[in-house]
Design a protein that fits this description.
The chain has six helices and five strands, in the order βαβαβαβαβαα. It is α/β, with parallel strands linked by helices. It has a five-stranded parallel β-sheet with strand order 2-1-3-4-5, sandwiched between helices. α1 links the parallel β1 and β2. The longest helix is centred in the N-terminal third of the chain and has 14 residues. The termini are far apart.
Length: 131
């Protein structure tokens, strides 16, 4: 299983990778530092999941998301961001994301969301579900 992590911060990519490697030991990871690199990697290999940051140089994650969903409609996307859930989660979900995870979330929440999405579901955080 291949997972692509697109985030402009190397430390964040490494942290996301370590969290998911613990939860999914069979996974292989690729990393992209911006939206263009993410699109390029998606065109060259098949992935089971894309973790996509909103704030990246060049094309933002919100710019890349509709392109990804058009070109790879079956690819689940988890949007990860420091942006407030109340401002970006619904927008991301409407654009085709399978989940929106705030970077302040507990590592277990990311692992839980990833397992649910890889099983064919969608994930909404308890905070978002309440609102």
């Amino acid at each position: 299983m291949r997972i692509l992590i697109a985030d402009d911060h190397a430390v964040m990519r490494r942290g996301l990778k370590e969290i998911l490697a613990d939860a999914l030991p069979e996974a292989c990871f690729s990393e992209a530092c911006d939206g263009e690199e993410a699109l390029s990697l998606l065109a060259r290999s098949e992935y089971a999941l894309l973790l996509l940051d909103i704030n990246m140089p060049g094309r933002s994650g919100l710019d890349v998301l509709p392109i990804v969903k058009h070109a790879y409609p079956q690819l689940p996307v988890i949007v990860v961001s420091v942006q407030p859930e109340d401002q970006y989660a619904m927008r991301s979900l409407r654009a085709g994301a399978a989940a929106y995870i705030n970077k302040d979330s507990a590592p277990d929440e990311l692992a839980q969301a990833t397992r649910k999405i890889l099983a064919g579901g969608r994930y909404v955080s308890p905070r978002l579900a309440e609102s």
